[in-house]
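step: validate -> pass
step: tokenize input -> pass
step: predict -> running
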Amino acid sequence: MTYFGFLARFLLVPILLFALLLAIRWRRSRPQPFWSKERAIFVILLHVAIALLYTTPWDNYLVATGVWWYDPALVSGLIIGWVPIEEYTFFFLQPILTSLFLLLLLGGRAGEPGLEGGGTSTRLGATAIAGALWLAAVVILLLGWQPGTYLGLELGWALPPIMLQLIFGADILWRYRRPVLLSLLLPTLYLAAADALAITVGIWTIDPAQSLHLLLLGVLPLEELLFFLLTNTLIVFGVTLSLAPESTQRLRDLRSRVSSVQSRLARKMAV
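step: predict -> pass
step: emit ->
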């Protein structure tokens, strides 16, 4: 099985299935979702663009430093930087796959009620936990502990944008916790299982010296499962926050506060 064959089987096929199911639901759904079809498509494409821009330099660094490598016989041979074109195609397809699955689960439902009072503490607490993990990753990299290289690079790369998502809307994400958690769990397990197969047939290989070499079911490096969890977290959090009506109101409130502060500063400077 080639890398493109892997992408066609395990990403393109479910994407087409989810897109069909979503189109049927949009046609028949009553009530309609709290987001428009046009907005949903725009948000998905935006996350595809962000994934390509944000992941490209990081993944090229991993390949350039030998954290992982691919079998030249199982890729097309078109390389951009250090990474085969198939890898960029994966960056393109994964956000679509996970986003469509999330939209199917969101449907027309609103979030769970009853968290308005604890929003600030929820955001600060979640961000603090993510920040502590990020600091641990930085320490691993600074110490140069080779088995922790892949782990440190993953956490160091993924957690800063996740922290931004949490500080903005951890409480909003909690309101939609059922579709959010399912969209994290199921696509992560699915992609991890597909990844294990790809490793088994030799499409790509993770350097045992630069990973913890903790193999799940004797095949899948722990860092690979973590990779899909982190990337799906970025996608699910981002899409949910982009579509949730609570986010729109929060942005309005933030703009209002910023404008108020700017007005006060302008008055003080005028005096």
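step: describe -> The chain is about 75% helix and 5% strand.
step: cleanup -> pass
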